[in-house]
Specification:
Helix content is about 30%, strand content about 20%. The protein has helices spanning about 30-40, 90-105, 125-145, 195-200, 210-220, 225-230, 245-255, 275-280, 285-295, 305-310, 330-340; strands spanning about 55, 65-70, 75-80, 110-120, 150-155, 160-170, 185-190, 235-240, 260, 295-300, 320-325, 345-350, 355-360. β1 (about 55) and β2 (about 65-70) form a beta hairpin. α2 packs parallel to α3 (about 125-145), α4 crosses α5 (about 210-220) and α7 (about 245-255) packs parallel to α9 (about 285-295). The longest helix is centred in the first third of the chain and has 18 residues, at about 90-105.
Length: about 350
Amino acid sequence: MNDRHDDHTDHMQAPRLTSLSHGGGCGCKIAPGVLAELLATQPAAMPVAAFADLLVGRETADDAAVYRLNDEQAIVATTDFFMPIVDDPFDFGRIAATNALSDLYAMGARPILALAIVGMPINVLPRETIAAILRGGESVCADAGIPIAGGHSIDSVEPIYGLAALGVVHPARVKRNSTAREGDVLVLGKPLGVGVLSAALKKGELDERGYAAMIESTTRLNRPGIALAELPGVHALTDVTGFGLLGHVLELARGANLGIRLHYGALPLLAGVEALAARGIVTGASARNWNSYGADIDLNAQLPDVARSLLTDPQTSGGLLAACAPDAVEAVLACFHADGFADAAVIGEVVGGQARVSVV
């Protein structure tokens, strides 16, 4: 939206949003290894198998829960929220809302409504700053054709914003992250590098062009997920967020109990991120991600020095990742390109063997 500042008051007296949070965007997610340890200690009050209509629960760390209402409809539910990744409040609201709705698209669902999740340091941030964050979220939901129908707010130490979102999908068209097949081709919808750009922004080393590229990527709704759900050749679908490309590809591999091979040279990257990463401008989440799952990754020794940082870079509002039959690749790319995802690219394939990821 080109007029995002028209109704904003001056924010010059307000503290930088990113200065109020210890981490930003999906980079502030709990590390995957720690999260797995925490969840492993939680006994189920009732076996998931007791809920016959719960089509997708927490078994494979999928993007959203799916509950079948009848033979034609399933409800898809998710929640996602985080601390500021940028200082512009309107942009922060837009990014957080886009990221939350991505979980619905990653299941093949059409969003129907959202509820706002709001935690703000009321005595630190001006009211107009908080209002601008909310307007940013509203604008994205309007673009998605849904209302923010309510929500909940608290007075918190750090600014937090996101959505609980609901969508609908035909039960037979639910796309999971655990159903890739041997021989499938992997297609990634958005370029990588959001975490690197956010780190550069926080250090004051991101130029206007880099900021514009980051905002364009993080506020582009992953709407192609709806069309991808219609394609029988698409066997699995997820989105790439805080665990980095390797973390989410590893979830695909573990869900299917198959190996996956990625081609580093085929990865789409946001302009300038390789040079920034080479200077050590990366997020702390990259190292945390690698420490959580690096034992299941095989990196070719000939890869550039920055490869590991970019492969583990946390993606806020990242792209969809589809595993599809080879004869469906053209149709999958067409779904992305039709919605303006010009960087969508084939990045690897599903192979036999152990549930590991190799990068060549």
